[in-house]
Fold this sequence. Notes:
Layout: H1 20-45, H2 61-76, H3 82-113, E1 116-117, E2 127-129, H4 142-149, H5 168-185, H6 193-210, H7 218-226, H8 232-245, H9 251-268, H10 274-292, H11 299-313, H12 315-321, H13 323-335, H14 340-377, H15 409-415
Amino acid sequence: MTTTPTATTSEAPKRSTRRISWDILRVFAVFAVVVEHITHQSQINHPELAGYPFALPLQFGASSMLVISAFFVCVTIGRRRWLWNRLARLVPAYLVAVLATYVISRIAVTVFNGHTYADGSWLFGIPVSGVPTPYPWYLPTAHDLLGNLLMIQAWSPSFHWIDASYWTLPVQIIAFACAAFLFGRRWLTARNAPVWLWSLVIVPVVLRFTLRTDDAPQWIKSVFDGLALHRVHLFGVGIAIWLWSTGRMRGWHLGLYIAAALVAQDAHAYFADTPSTIAFGVVLLLVCAAAGGPDWDIAIVRRMAPAITWLAGISFGVYLVHQELGFILARSLLDIGATPLERFAASFTLAVVLGWLLTKLVERPAHRLLTQSQAGRFGRSPASPVPSPRPISQASTVGAGPPTSGESLAAASSQSR
């Protein structure tokens, strides 16, 4: 992660607080999602895409990303215009990715299913015919597009996810808004933090098995799923690791909390994917090592640092474009006789290339434009006119000493920078 240099004296050289360990974790989490979707999820959604030389069925990458994101919320939340800065980095790239995926999906599915349209409107029209196929693809509609642009897909079963990977964006934005709300009112203090954290684990599980059952009214399902209550424990884990790394939580308490969160995660899935939960637990140990231990700045990592840093910088863009567009590419290659290995290599490469383009052409320019405009409204210039290349979930520094008794977590977070 890129950091702002500091100096102890006016004569001292600038010293970077960059830690490569967080870049490694970010890249590992994102590309675990990419590989899992290419080799495993693709054949669930589209059985004709089976046959890859290997498959990664463990689903832990997206959960790891949310934990890391929550950790760095604690590090960065005291900064000026924190919430606006986050939204300016996330939302424009997301909106462009939704629009691009919708248009490409409409074109591709029209070809795959042999659709024809009465009014000739392939972009929004309803098909009147198609070619019979054993594996028809879903054709996204204008209704789906609106729901995805507004990020309300989880609130109603009438919306279809244009790309199923998008589920993390509404979750993060809700979490960021809640964090900003609590921070501004100093409601989260060192004394009541354990109550807040444990409620994030216990309350959703209780609601899952008492109210949000399979036969529950739709409005209950909509509220539970729309607020992503089955995921909030992930943010609790990120906060708990930050508290532990800064001396505000005992090691035994963190271990107990992580164990409870893992049980809750498995419970929300009705204990149907325990191997993924175990894999996620292993990743959490690595996150703890990065948060509380020395940086992973060893010789082999140092030689790979430029590539790792570059991939970490485009990881959000990669995440946004890798799944549905990758499936479309894989199906197109299948139709012309490409081997499974060729389809894997092409889908992986596409994710990196499109992720880089989205970052370079949309995410960073939009972030720069929006943050400069916001600063201008208050008669100030941003601290830096060039947006940082680090991912949105990464911060400049991760250290802070324990707070004095009664000091709020919000204030302590502000003082850690």
